[in-house]
Amino acid sequence: MHNTDNVDPAELAKFSDLAHRWWDTESEFRPLHQINPLRLDWITDIVPIAGKRVLDVGCGGGILADAMARRGAEVLGIDLATKALRVAQLHALEAQTSGVQYREISAEALAVEQPESFDVVTCMEMLEHVPDPSSVVRACAQIVKPGGHVFFSTINRNPKSFLFAIVGAEYVLKLLPKGTHEYAKFIRPSELARYAREAGLELEHTKGLEYNPLSRRYWLSGDTSVNYMLGTRKV
Q1: Would you say 119 and 100 are in contact if contact means Cβ atoms under 8 Å apart?
Q2: DSSP 8-class letter at 143
Q3: Is pLDDT at 3 greater than 50 in this prediction?
Q4: Which DSSP symbol is given to 107?
Q5: Each residue's pLDDT tens digit, 146-172
Q6: Contact 224, 189 (CB under 8 A)
Q7: Cα–Cα distances in angstroms (integers) from residue 79 to residues 11, 15, 44, 224, in the given order
């Protein structure tokens, strides 16, 4: 697959249409704002990012990239959704976040341009939106320095995740816009671990993310049956 083709135009359009709402914490992006501190703390407990060069793949409106820059990292956020990137850049200006930059480029193209040049790579809530997730995993592995860390988060594929992530989150609780996720694009942890292994990344950490609709609270746990994160290292 040619490196510029690993994109779904419908997915880009979907997130571009919502771009102006990225930083509204009560919008459709509320869940991302809620889980961001949990993800950030999990990552920084594994690898302190202050002073490190960090890449955020599929950065969207910059929620994680901005937070990592505020922890002292030198961050580059990349995405192919033009409007979301503009929102990210505008927010960085308004919030006066130093140490963060954004580019409209695919992970595959950046891997050719800047191989082995980042200490840490994050790719959160993005793999389930591309036609070929293994291609993105390979690109992340090429971009990170030897011994560097790559973090992924996505959604498991099973009846429970269909019920929770699509029926529950999109239709019942309306946490996310309808059509945000396609069940067929969900990725089992074993599949993602295989993509990582084949790309030269060693799986070191696994963490689940759970949600209580009554308390509207998220927390990290050992349950990877719906939302989960993998921490890998380039061998």
Answers
A1: no
A2: H
A3: no
A4: H
A5: 999 999 999 999 999 999 999 999 899
A6: yes
A7: 12, 11, 22, 26
Which residues have C-beta within 8 Å of that of residue 5, sequence separation ≥ 6? 131
Q: DSSP letters along 70-102, please?
A: HTT-EEEEEES-HHHHHHHHHHHHHHT--SEEE
Q: Which amino acid is at 141?
A: A
- Quick count: other Cβ atoms within 10 Å of Cβ 86? 16
Cβ-proximal residues to 188 (8 Å cutoff; 6+ apart), any chain = 156, 157, 158
40 sits in which H/E element: helix 30-46
Phi, psi angles (nearest 5°) of residue 25: -70, -10
The one-character DSSP state at 129 is G
- Please say whether the dihedral angle defined by the alpha carbons of residues 78, 7, 121 and 118, taken in this order, is positive or negative: negative
Q: In one letter, which amino acid is 21?
A: R
| Mean pLDDT score, 208-232 | 95
The pLDDT of residue 4: 56
**Cβ atoms of residues 116 and 48 within 8 Å:** no
Q: Domain locations in the chain? A: 9-234
The pLDDT of residue 5 is 72
Fold annotation for 9-234: Rossmann fold (3.40.50)
Task: Report the C-alpha gap between 150 and 56 in whole angstroms.
Answer: 10
Query: Considering only CA atoms, which of 54, 193, 206 is closest in space to residue 133?
Result: 193
Alpha carbons 11 and 92: distance in angstroms, whole number: 24
Closest-CA residue to 165 (of 219, 209, 122, 133): 209
Task: Quick: pLDDT tens for 10-20.
Answer: 887 877 777 78
